[in-house]
Fold this protein.
Amino acid sequence: MDLLFQFLSNTGYYLADYRNVIMIVVGFLFLYLGTAKEYEPLLLVPIGFGILVGNIPFFKGFGLGIYENNSVLHYLYFGVTTGLYPSIIFLGLGAMTDFSSLLARPVLMLLGAAAQMGIFFTLLGALALGFLPKEAASIAIIGGADGPTSIFLTAKLAPHLIGPIAIAAYSYMALIPVIQPPIMRLLTNRKERLIRMAELRDVSKKERIIFPAVAVILCCFLAPASIPLLGTFFFGNFLKECGVTDRLAQTARTSIIDTATILLGLTVGASTQGDVFLTPKSVAIFFLGAVAFSIATASGVIFAKILNLFLKDKINPLLGAAGVSAVPGSAREVHMVGQSEDPENFLLMHAMACNSSGVIGSAICAGILWSFLVVL
Amino acid sequence: MAYVGALIVFAGLVILSSAISQFHKVLLFFEKRHAAFNNNRKIPENDKPEETPPSHKPKGFPTDLDEAACLYQPLIEELGEPFYLSDLYEIAKNNDFPHPHITLTAFREAEILAPYGDGVFGWNPHTENNNNEFD
């Protein structure tokens, strides 16, 4: 009988507290949003299930939890804390990205730069709220709307915040259809939303091959700390474009990125154990993440309007919202908002140019913030 | 820190966008140079083209573009229109046509080869300009 009581006292039913229950509800919410609503299912499903797995109460000391040495989850989590998974994801992302539209209209890259202002505004906000500089930088990078970049920088600067920051970053990426359109509509008038972009010129194969090689040099010389992200990103793109490594590119953009995404999502979800996740800091991070994402969207749109004062070929300011690096969610949203005004206005390719420059921009931001703060 | 960071990111992407905006111009420049180099290299078989220019045109090959176009006509028919310039070059070379590169360049200048873009061409031997002779 004692053995039975001992067993029962070690079950999750006995050990559960309200924080585990709250997080399990959050996990189910993620699974619901991912499967029923199809909001970023490739991200929300692994994370949602990871939240369920990570919040099953267990007897501490068994080597089961993600924060316990020698547990399986701990080993899998190693890829997050070292920044390994984000690097691998960037490899696959590079092998998927087509830079043709960006090469055809390089000025769109400036919108990707402008959208990064959300990061720096939020950095100031987080510092003002009393976060330590490394924590503030990790929170601010949510404004880049790039999950792997956010995880990478947080792993380097504030590993104790990986859970809330990753969840916030991916949540806001999934909520793009809710967050971005109102901001786009608020900051533009109908006439601006109707602007049609000039036809893109044809981009030669040689240009597409040379771009990743030149870009990796220019970007990584500027911010060497972004090598783990941009190095693999441009390498993946070179594999895609060079024309002689199709098999490698195919593997990078399918099996490799999928494996990394599964492991990253599952372990990030599992890292949200109620007792370490549900803190006032997490609430503040979610609030600041929303601010960062909104400012990033607004910065891109406003900068596009400013650019239009000087450009002969006007840019549809909606494209500024795609300067965040949520690929391809924000580009798709820009296209849909544009089409809701004029069904024959096709902004997708132009928005993808801003999107891909946003990826580069946020990775550079991460590198810069890391190099600023690593000595502190 | 925030201002400096923002400035660096912006500067970096401005530099990158400026660089990529020049890509196609730089490539075009090198392609032109390459083409010019090939032209200069292919005219002479030896190192002194100015001393022996006529001797490099093989006997029996016409100096008149019209006639040259007639010789190329069967190749065009074999390829079918439109065709890649590289294919025409290859087939001409395989058939031992002398200096196909020069001939094709002359055809292009005379608009006998009509560009359709992306290296694809059509055949238009009856243009007004095609009575030019090779240099």
Summary: Residues 2-58+66-373 of chain A form one domain. DSSP finds 21 helices and no strands in chain A. The first helix of chain A runs from residue 2 to 9.
